[in-house]
Records
---
Amino acid sequence: MTGLVLKAEPVGEYDKRVVILTKERGKLAAFARGARKQSSRLLAPTCPFSFGQFGLYAGRNSYTLTEASISNYFEALRKDFEGACFGQYFLEICDYCARENNDERELLKLLYQSLRALSASSIPKELVRYIFEIRTVVINGEFPGLPDEAKWQDSTRYAIHHITTAPVEKLYTFIVSPQVLGELKRLADFYRKRFLNEPFHSLQILDTL
């Protein structure tokens, strides 16, 4: 399956339990036997941010990860504390929103493109965050439109139209003025608190940066 590791946690002495957002089956949890051993070929592929192909087989009660071929580890994020914090926040949102056996292809595409945007220096990380938050609400089918539309700048309304309608691959192709960025922040906060009302731990860290 094609997917991206959202989180990993130790199980027992040598194993890991990983949560993967997959194109084919939505969010899946799987056990990786021996993945914590330094000699294991599953040690690196079971780290968060790892994107690629995963070999899984279904047991009676759970999946087991048997192999992985990773095409992108997002190394730039792993070396950038601020970028890693933003990225971890995105992973946490996807873990909250995604469901097993759901069609989560759009969410996976959004996550992948958003991590790529975080890794680049051409777009502010705060803008990446607001775009990601708003588009996640759209993918969940809960976007209500602009609240009190008359009070927003024309550039903000144009940005929202782009964020909510553009192909995911074209999302991160613009920057905005500080004034518009401030309005996007207010809108993203409004949508997040209304539709993603969860105490995301990584967001608490982000708010201290």
Note: The longest helix spans residues 178-195.
---
Amino acid sequence: MEETGSKTKKHGNGIGGHLNNTARALTAVSTLGLSNLVWKKSKGSEKTKAIMQKVCLCQNCGHSWILDKK
């Protein structure tokens, strides 16, 4: 098996993340920005999936080829 590529999916914050960021902003205004040193902003997440492909290798000559799915 050989990795031939990858796909990355991004997911947003959702409702909870947006509420957290709003509360963080309001707290930052009232503390003149000092709360931002401790309370970090919510970010989305990423998932990366590797795309694998079956590759054959001749043990005599070293020739390689991709095995077709059927």
Note: Helices lie at 14-30.
